[in-house]
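EI: anyone free to look at a 747-residue chain?
SC: sure, send it
EI:
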Amino acid sequence: MKGSRRNGYSWIFAVERWSTDAPMTVFGRSEPTSVWSSESTNGPSNLKQRCDGVSRSMSPTTIGSPAALSGWQSKADKQSKVTESLADLALQQTASWFIKNQEGDGHWRGPLEGDTILESEYLLICGWAGRLDQSTMGGCVNRILTEQLPEGGWSIYPGGEPDPSASVKAYLALKMCGCDADSEPMKRARDAIKRAGGPWAVNSFTRFYLALLGQIPYSDCPAVPPEMILLPDWFPISLHRVSAWSRTMIVPLSLIWAFKPIRRLPQDMGIEELFADCASETRSRSIGGNDAWSRFFRIVDAVIKNVDCLGFRPLRRRAVMACRQWMLERFEGSDGLGAIFPPIVWSIVALRAMGCSDDSAEVSECWKQLEGLLERPDEKTIRVEPCRSPVWDTAIALRGLAEITSPSTSISTSMSSAVDWLLEREVRFAGDWSHRVKAVPSGWCFEYANRYYPDVDDTAMVLIAFSSWMKQQNMSDEGIASRRLSSVKTATRRGIHWLTAMQNSDGGWGAFDRNNNHEILCRVPFADHNAMIDPSSPDLAGRVLEAFGSLGHRVGEPVVDRAINYLCETQEPDGSWFGRWGVNYIYGTWQAIEGLRAVGVSQNDPLVRRGAAWLKSKQQANGAWGESPASYTDSSLKGIGDPTASQTAWAVAGLVAADEYGSSSAIRGIQWLLTTQRPDGDWNETAFTGTGFPEVFYLRYHYYRISFPLIAIARWRASLGIAGTKQNQGQFAVQSRSSKVYEEVLA
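SC: here you go
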């Protein structure tokens, strides 16, 4: 999937001949553009030659200065029908929307929507625990039925194909709640499930739900022995070798597998008809393929089950107590185990299986956190969220507002409140990440509270937001002297040091852990949620580079150079980059370009040029961009999908970062955003453009459609000089590093 490096950079430079007819002013220097020809096999020998002599001591001359912009401005004036007043109005409307929707304590949190597996699983766990409530049951059932596909099944994203796991869970939940098996929706569902492979085609986690409710025996679930928690770190499948989110699911699941709790449903609530319809289907599935390691782990799975049946469990009691203690420790300071839906559910089952009553303090807290994920978008519907996203939403909103030139008093007040809220959310606790990294604790998590699991993506986004806000404060002595600014600088220093320590050996970053990339773990039978490991991804590398660049770090620093090498090695042959946490190649390509430019890589570098060219090649006739999650399973669909505001904003931001702000592609993208904005400052968007686990779980961040267009429009406007006196920032400019703000942050 990823492009290979092949002789350092030589394969990247062998793309096309760049003209040298005219010098280009870059970072205050006149230099010819690249002259490496298509026959060249040897590019620059080091990363400092890949940029235009950028260093921290450079002059404050900017790419966005009037002299450098004049050519682009003229072209933009001729091509663009977008007026200054339209851009101003769009920014004003969006800023007003954010101010209106800001919480009293300064943060933002938009709805976070997943597919119907969340409502189905909520009903199933309530049914298992004997806690089905008529009001919540009706709301969840309505949501499930509303999302049923015309052909009868349920997909994991709008426009997707019927998914067997989502469909079987929905069918079981509906039947358990009293839906007639002979009703038209249930008949269509059965037909769709049969076409999708039947109930045996479901994934491992779905099998555990079926076992809990007595629909299949636990022997048809993969073995997850609790003794795994006792394995030493050097062991290939030890607990700290799996990803953080898998860790939080495996530990309670191992207790469930050990105790095998069952609450058998009455026959009229079960799904035996699904199995009868697919009697010829095999009970076993090949998880991870038929390679040698997959076959080996299936043999190990069978051996573990046989040994367990014989009652040979010399370490079971010790392992069970260790798992229980591990879970309870991570309840502290968190919105439930891992602060996400699946481990909270499994925690309830595990604790109940160990003998805890439903009203015990531990189980009650789990139910409180689980029920806190219920949203009521209307009086008839309940939507279950996978988690809360306040830190993420607040950081992006703050970043967008800080891009606005000469903000009003109300915007400044709003930003100050958001900064204070984010400062309070810094995680100063040595969580699971510290098992492999020795650094001063810092970072930010995604949710309100999740102290064991700060993550790289949120931390980088918060630092970018802080940097953007600090540039606003740099305009007055009063701002520089403020106590708030001092706190931001201190937190920013800690955050940068933490991100540096979290860099992987390959130069990239994972989300929660360092060097969590043991691919052998993807072959174990319970690895079919496609997230057993947490390796580097281009989008994360790009965002971290953007954070570093926004705070003055440049090419020539080891941490930066390693990350650029990583992005060089992972660029696809067509110029795009994979997006792990957003859909998909539009997201990854945008973020990679942003990061490269932020640390001083030239806009003429082939990495940047090829990325920008790919973005332009995927623009639709109406000027917008869109990409479906289907591109994760079919690479021929890269950059193809219904147009969305969020993905159009990503593409435009990528082009602006690549100094393509005057191109017809960027202008048409901006025009589409401006003409599709609603009067209230919002945009319409129903697509899932966020990624939880590729090919398994996708997300609709309801604020993406607002915050990212705000960023794209503000940056495009500033890049054309419409913004007046404001210095462009990050990837567009290299501001003077003599300011007190940057001297103190970089100290």
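EI: Strands lie at 24-26, 29-31, 112-113, 374-378, 381-384, 690-693, 697-701.
SC: 👍
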